[in-house]
Specification:
Blueprint: E1 6-8, H1 9-15, H2 21-30, E2 37-39, E3 42-46, H3 47-60, H4 84-88, H5 95-104, H6 115-118
Antiparallel strand pairs: 1-3, 2-3
Amino acid sequence: MQKQIFLTAAQVRERYGRVSRMWIYRRMEDSAFPTPVRFARLRYWRASDLEAWDTAALAKCVPASEYRPTPRRAARSPGRFGAPEDWKRGLVPAREDIRAFVNSHNAPPNARKSVRQRGV
């Protein structure tokens, strides 16, 4: 009879690169990640189950020679205050123009004032 090896949650997290507990729970929901075995209040994972999940996950991977990235989407429109490239070149609207635009939209009278200006 072969002994089964059980790993604690901390060991499982370390095995997959110091991932969080939430990462483990998300894998259990999204994929066929093995569920833990409970001894009293502690959770343990069978090492054999984790190795089986690893091999199944590797089988789904696309080899680097066959990988084709998805085409990039079209460039975004410049928008109201210019494109980010314009900002990098220093072609930015004046700060007053931006404030005037923001303040011109319908808003309650005190919504755009800071706490200090409201006298609170």
